[in-house]
Design brief:
The complex is a heterodimer of chains A (158) and B (467). Chain A is elongated and about 50 Å long. Chain A has a domain at 37-146: Immunoglobulin-like (Sandwich), CATH 2.60.40. Chain A has one helix and eleven strands, in the order αβββββββββββ. Chain A is mostly beta strands. Chain B is an alpha+beta fold and 467 residues long. In chain B, 35% of the residues lie in helices and 25% in strands. Chain B has 14 helices and 17 strands. Chain B has helices spanning 2-25, 34-39, 43-53, 56-62, 263-273, 279-287, 334-356, 358-364, 366-375, 378-389, 391-404, 412-419, 427-431, 434-449; strands at residues 30-31, 66-69, 75-78, 84-92, 101-106, 112-116, 121-122, 135-141, 151-162, 171-181, 189-203, 209-225, 233-234, 256-260, 294-299, 307-309, 319-324. In chain B, the strands form four sheets. In chain B, strands 1, 2, 3, 4, 5, 6 and 8 form a seven-stranded mixed β-sheet that branches. A four-stranded antiparallel β-sheet of chain B has the order 9-10-11-12, with no helix packed on it. In chain B, helix 7 (334-356) crosses helix 8 (358-364), helix 9 (366-375) packs across helix 10 and helix 11 (391-404) packs across helix 12 (412-419). Chain B is globular. Chain B starts with a helix and ends in an 18-residue tail after the last helix. The chains are: A mainly beta (158), B alpha+beta (467). The A-B interface holds A 84-85, 87, 99, 120-123, 125-126, 149-158 and B 302-312, 323, 347, 351, 354, 358-359, 361-362, 368-369, 372-373, 376-379, 381-382, 421-422, 424-425, 444-445, 448.
Chain lengths: 158, 467
Amino acid sequence: MEQLNHKKVTEPGVDKLIVFFKAACLLLAMSLNSCFSTVKQDFYLTNNNGGYTLKSTFGSTYPETDSILVFGYTRDVETNAPLMSSTVQFYCDTSLSEEKGYYELRIKKGLDVDSYFTAVSLGYKRVETTILNTAGLDSLRIDFFLEKDTTPIFHCNQ
Amino acid sequence: MKNNLLTLLGLMLACFLIGCQQNTDEVPSSIITPELAQSSGKDSFLSKINDLVSSSDVQNQIAEPLGDVHFEYLTYFESDSKAHVALLPIYTESSKMLDGLLVVVQDRNFQLQIKLLTRGLMYNYKVLDGYSPPLYVLASIFTSYDQMLFENNSTTVEEIIGWPNNDQPIASRKSIEIETDVSNVKLGWVEIRTCEFEINYAWDGEGNYLGSDIAGQVCSYEYLWESTAGAPILLDQGGSGGGNGSYVPRRIEDHIDDSKLKPCLQAVLADVKGLTKGVSHMINKFAGLNQGYNWEMVDARLAQGTGETSSVYNSATGTVTSKFDAQNWKNATDISWARTILHESVHAYLVAFYNTNRQAFLGTYPQMVNDWATYSNWNRVHHEEFSRSLTQDIADALQEFGTNKGYGNLSRQFYEDMAWAGLQGTTAFDKLPPSDQQRILDTNSIELTKSDLNGTAKSQKGNGAGC
C-alpha cells in the first residue's frame, strides 16, 4: 500500500540525530504506547468488489488541536491507478481528490459521532466504509479502491 | 554563496521574462478599433470579415453557432508580401469548443474563402475575461493579383494494390501530401497535411470503367516553424508551442461495423450515414473534440428498450458495442430507429472518450462529475447530459433524415419530440410542462408501436422500418 512520501534532505549529523530520536521514540512507544501508535490497518472488501484500507493514529503526528485529519487516496481496484476528481464525503463535508487521487478532510475533533465515509468517482462504483467512530482519533487514513462501473447504458422506457 | 545563487536565479528569471515579452512584440501587429479601421480605409475589409464570420460557410466549418465577435481585440498588420492580415478572436456560443484557426483568404477573384487549418491550433493566443480560449480568424487581403498569401504544393503517390485477371486495377492506395507555406506573412509556419486512403475501382465484364469509391481516408497534420514569435499554439499539448504537432480527424460513419445488424436496421443506418447533420456532425458539435471510435452495432434481444450501449471499451480494437433489438419492435418506423441509432452513437462516443482519456473527460464534462455524485450510474448521468445539450442536435439530424425520406411536411415540433426519447425522468424532462411530456411520450410511442400510451392505435409519421 502506498504511503505518503516526503523526501527529506538533511546533513549527515542530522541523520544520526534522527535515527537516535526514532529509536528512542520506538522504545518509548513500546513501553508507553503513545509516541506513534498505529491501531489498525486492514483491507475491507465492500459488496461491489471495491474496498478500503484504514489506518488510524493517536498521538501528535498531526498536531491539530481541534480537528482530525482524514486523508488518503482513491484508486482503481484493478489497476491501482489514481482516481482524480473523486468525492470523499463524511456527513456534509466533502473533499475532491487531486490528480494523484489524494484527498484530505478535516473533521471536528471530540465529537461522538458514528457515520461512514463514502468515495464516489465518475465511472466507478461507490464505496462506503462501515460506521466509524472517530472519537479519540488524531488522524485517519482511508485509501479507497473502487471498481469500474461496467453496467450497460440502457433505456427503461421509450 | 546562497545570496549569489539567488541573485543569479533572479537575473535569469528577469531575462527570461523580458525575452518572452520581446518575442511577443516581434509580431508586427497593432490593435485597431473599428473606428480606426474605418478612418484608415480598411473598413470594407473589416466589413467583409464581419460578413464572413457570420456566414453559413463559417458556421458549417466550426459546427457550432458563433458567439460574440470582438472587433476591439482584432490584431492587424501588413505582411512581408504586402497583404493585409488580421487576427480576430471569435467565440462559440457555449465557449467550450477549441476548434482551431480559421484562415480567411481573398483569392484572385477577390472572393473571401475560408479554411480550417486544424483543431487545437491557435495563433497569438489570448484569453478574455469570462471566456475560454477563442477561435481566431486569420483574415488577409491582397494588394495585388499575383501575390498568393499561401502557397500550396501537393505530392500524390498512388500504388496499385489489386489487379483482376484482365490487368485492370481494382484497388489502389493513394497518399497525398499538401504543404501550405504561410511563412511569408511572418507567421513563420508551414502546415503539412498528409491524407491516405484506398480507392476501389469498378469495371464491367467488358473492361469498361464504371467508377470509383474512396474508402478509409485518414489525414494527419503537422506544423513546422522556426521562430517563437511565429509558433502556433497547440492546445492539445497543454497550450505550449513546440516543433510540430499532429491531429488525426476521423469520421465516425466510416468506422461502423454493422455486419451483425438486421438488414432493416442496416438500411436505416445507411440513410443515417448519409446525413450532413448526422453522427459525426452531432458529436463534433456536442463534444468539441472528436476522439473517434470504432462502433460495432449488433442485433440482440434486450430486456428493455430498443437500444443499449456497453460501457466497456475494447482498448485493443478501439471499439464500443451497441445492441439493437429489432425483433421486439416490429412496428417501429424508420424515423424511430434513426433516432435510436443517433442516440446510441453519442453513448458510444462518451464511452470511448471516457475510457481513452478520463482526465480530459472530467475536464470536458464537469457537470457529469457532479451528477455522478448524485446518481452514480452511467445511465442517468449520460441522459442528464443529453437532455442538457443534445436534443436540438438530434432533432436537426432527424429533420434532415425525414426530409431526405420525403416527409417534408412534418413539423419541427415532431422532430424535437422524437429527440426526447430515452430522456424521460431526467431533470430537464421533468421540468417540461405535463402537457409537453404527454405529447412527447405519445409521439414516441406511436412511432415505436403504432399506438399511443393509452394503447389506442394511431397512424405513424414515418414508414415502417420492416423489422
